[in-house]
Amino acid sequence: MATGELVAMEALARWSHPDLGVIDPTEFVAVAERTGVVGDLGEWALYTACAQATSWRTFCDVGVRVNVSALQLRDAAFVNKVVAVLVSTGLDPAALGLEITETVWVSDTARVAGTLTALHDMGIGISLDDLGSGYSSIAYLTRYPVFECFKIDKSYIQSLPAARPSAIVAAVVMLARAFDLTVVGEGVETVEQLEILRACGCDLAQGFLLGKPMTADQATAELSRAAKR
Fold first, then answer.
1. CA dist 187 to 155, 191, 192, 204, 209, Å?
2. Where is the signal peptide (predicted)?
3. How far separated are the first and last CA of the chain, in Å rounded?
4. Which of 21, 59, 115, 208 is deepest in the core (most CB within 10 A)?
5. What is the per-residue pLDDT across 16-28, written as a single tens digit (0 to 9) for each?
C-alpha cells in the first residue's frame, strides 16, 4: 500500500469445461473433496503455481500464494509433499505463502497445527484468509503463532465507505499490529475503498481494482512490464 509495488500473485484454480463452460471453484473443489481427489488437485495446483513462480523470479522478486484445502492439511504426508514440490521446482520457501480458512480447524486441530508449524519452520508464509467471516479467528492467532498475515474478509471491504465497516477495518488493522502481523484487504474494487484501507494503515491490498484474474501468460506480461518501470 505504501509503495504501490506488486509483491505476490495468488494462484486461482479455474475450470473451463468443453461442454459445461466455466465451472466455479466453489463447485468443483467441493466435488473434489467429496470424491477424494482434492489432494491430487491440490498437489497439481501447488506444483503448477510454484513452477510458475520460479519462472517469474528469474526477472522479478515476486511471491506466490496458494489456497490449501482442509483435507490437505489433515494429510500426514502433506509437509513432505510440499518439500518435494519445492525441491522439484527450485522455489525458495520464503517465496511461497499458503492461505487457509478457519474451517480447517473444525476437526483434527492438533494434526493441522503440527502441519502448519512444520511449514512455518521451513520458512513458508502462512496466511489466515477471510478474517471476520467466522468467530474463532482471533483465538487461532493466539493459540498458534505460525501466521504471518491475515486477510480481511471482502464483505467488509465491499461495504466501505460506510461508517461501521470502516471502523471494523480500522480495528482489524490494530489487531494485526498487536500480533505483529501483516494485514491484507481483499476484494478492493474502487479507489475509495483503497484509500480507506491506506488511511487505516493496511499493509497490502488485492482486488479487481488492482488486477483481475488472468492467465499465466497475461500475468507474465504484467510482471514483465512492472519490472521495467
1. 8, 12, 13, 12, 8
2. none
3. 17
4. 115
5. 899 999 898 888 8
Residue range 8-228, CATH number: 3.20.20.450
Asked if 39 and 72 count as a contact pair (C-beta separation under 8 A), the reply is: yes
Torsion angle defined by CA atoms of residues 57, 63, 67 and 71, in that order, rounded to the nearest 10 degrees: 70
What DSSP character marks residue 190? S
> Mind listing the pLDDT tens digit for each residue in 158-189?
888 888 889 988 988 998 888 899 999 999 99
Host H or E run for residue 214: none
CA angle (202 as vertex; 200, 204 as ends), nearest 5: 155
Asked whether residue 136 carries a pLDDT value surpassing 60, the answer given is: no
Single-letter code of the amino acid located at 97: G
CA distance 222 to 164: 36
Contacts by 10-15 with C-beta closer than 8 Å and gap 24+?
10/64, 10/65, 10/66, 10/67, 10/99, 10/206, 11/45, 11/48, 11/49, 11/52, 11/64, 11/65, 11/66, 11/67, 12/213, 13/41, 13/45, 13/67, 14/213
The residue type of 110 is A
Residues 129, 101 contacting (CB under 8 angstroms): yes
Residue type, 13: A
DSSP 117-177: HHHHHTT-EEEEEEETSSS-HHHHHHH-TT-SEEEE-HHHHHTTTSHHHHHHHHHHHHHHH
